[in-house]
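Subject: sequence -> structure tokens, single chain

Hey, anyone have a minute? Need the predicted structure for the following. Not urgent.
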Amino acid sequence: MINSYEELVETTISATTDIEDFENIQVGRGGIYEHALFTKSGEKVATTSGGYKIHYRRESDQQFMAYLTNEVVFEDGSGTIRVAGWIDLGSLLSGDWAYYPSVGTSGRYLGQTGFMAWRPYDLGKVEGADVKLIMFASAE
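Reply:
Had a minute. Here:
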């Protein structure tokens, strides 16, 4: 069984960050947020909340690496999903998708694994993002 949400639009409910300039990122900076996920037709699917922190600058290509944690709570009460993983900020600033491992933590998603894909419209300038959330039933 696959639970697939592929053309979601993310909007910001609240967000705080101590990154003042996305052209001058620094290790140790980060933020917290709460977002809403909507279908293209405008139906609210879920609320997400979490945070991220920049932990280091990768030596091989000088990209900043941040760790993100995120909880997805579905509006229909069907369950929750935990998302966590590393962000290559250089890829996000160039408009690439970021993929994060996801694990179902309650309801119909409990025991499922999958991923969340996230692509911001213009990181640090324009709020919002395209989101895909794909969860797979565990093999028994």
